[in-house]
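Input chain follows. Return structure tokens only.
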Amino acid sequence: MVRFSAAEADIEQMLRFLVRRMPSGIRLVPLQARHRDDLRWRRTIRPLVHALRATDGPIAWGLRDAPPGDTSRAGMAAIPRLDAVQDPKTGTLTIDPDDSQLITLALGPAEGKSRRREALLLMRDWDVEADVEPDTPLARRADLARSLVDRCSRHLRRNAFQVEGRWLVGDTEPA
């Protein structure tokens, strides 16, 4: 788990850092949406960057690696369909990142002129909880996810400073 605070440009840079380290590409999906059509896999970070710029409220996305060697639509179909639960009060569809085996990127509301957001990059131990055998595709994906969160943590430690348990990235002047 990595807690940090960053402006939109710094979050976009961190996403590009993660994409470069995914050996077979990245897939992203919003964890909450009004319509089922919005809960589809994305092959680039552009929809997330657009959501960062267009939304002032908190947002959460799930990340995972792409099927090895296939970036076509058939490769997208190789990723399991995500089960979403609808909240009866608000009608919002929500994906559980633990059941879907996703790395979670939760971003708080935009604050100030630089639109700085509190963020959390998290990978739960769903492989340990499910008692997954080593050297299976699920175990390899869990190792890759854990490695990506660790790499991001090291990257933040080199390029940020820590205050009260979270990393501050970029310009920290008052807005």
